[in-house]
């Protein structure tokens, strides 16, 4: 069954408060999103498999642990998901990055795909979908659908802020996908924006309106 992990680390919660602030400009906003993404990657990768190895310290030979070669893929949902990639890559530099372009129709609020470029071996990778906001859940579910149609098996979803409606949609539609969030907000408003949220993450990342 799908699990929802609320990451309540004090540093993440502090930085998330700054991200929410309407007076935080694009440069600081981008830096904060990258920092929070890096901190969240620590929790997302908690269960990566390890294997035994030996290393030569300056003193003697020591038994140690190293990652067991599990392949990782980071998949941002364009465009706001791009803001989370560098933070994730700082902890997982060997990961490959795919891109899924989805926009939400302003009238129906339904997701529309316009771009998809993925690593050729996604069936062999643990995939981490990143998007700052999980609102209706439509874009996230569509992205998961695209990945599964192309052979993906192990998928996680990472969001800074989620609405209860989006969480329920992903959990019911894709119960095999684990969801990692830094905050669960109150609700969606009539325009399907998260309340209190942080506004439009893409616009705030890139200084557009």
Annotation keywords:
alpha/beta; single chain; nine-stranded mixed sheet; 209 residues
Task: Write up what this structure looks like.
33% of the residues lie in helices and 32% in strands. It contains 6 helices and 13 strands. The strands form 3 sheets. Strands 1, 4, 5, 6, 7, 8, 9, 10 and 11 form a 9-stranded mixed beta sheet that branches. α3 links the parallel β4 and β5. The longest helix has 19 residues. The chain is globular, with a radius of gyration of 18 Å. The relative contact order is 0.18. The mean pLDDT is 93.
Care to give the gist of this entry?
This protein is α/β, with parallel strands linked by helices and 209 residues long.
């Amino acid at each position: 069954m799908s699990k929802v992990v609320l990451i309540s680390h004090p540093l993440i919660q502090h930085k998330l408060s700054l991200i929410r602030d309407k007076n935080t400009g694009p440069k600081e906003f981008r830096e904060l999103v990258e920092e929070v993404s890096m901190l969240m990657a620590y929790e997302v990768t908690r269960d990566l498999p390890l294997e035994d190895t030996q290393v030569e310290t300056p003193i003697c030979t020591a038994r140690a642990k190293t990652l067991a070669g599990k392949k990782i893929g980071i998949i941002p949902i364009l465009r706001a998901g791009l803001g989370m990639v560098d933070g994730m890559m700082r902890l997982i530099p060997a990961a490959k990055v795919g891109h899924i372009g989805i926009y939400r129709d302003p009238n129906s609020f339904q997701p529309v795909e316009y771009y998809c470029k993925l690593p050729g071996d996604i069936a062999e990778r643990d995939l981490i979908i990143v998007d700052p906001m999980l609102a209706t859940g439509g874009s996230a579910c569509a992205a998961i659908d695209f990945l599964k149609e192309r052979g993906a098996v192990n998928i996680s979803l990472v969001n800074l802020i989620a609405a209860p409606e989006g969480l329920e949609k992903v959990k019911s539609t894709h119960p095999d996908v684990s969801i990692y969030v830094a905050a669960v907000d109150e609700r969606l408003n009539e325009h399907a924006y998260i309340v209190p949220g942080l506004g439009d993450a893409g616009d705030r990342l890139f200084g557009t309106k």
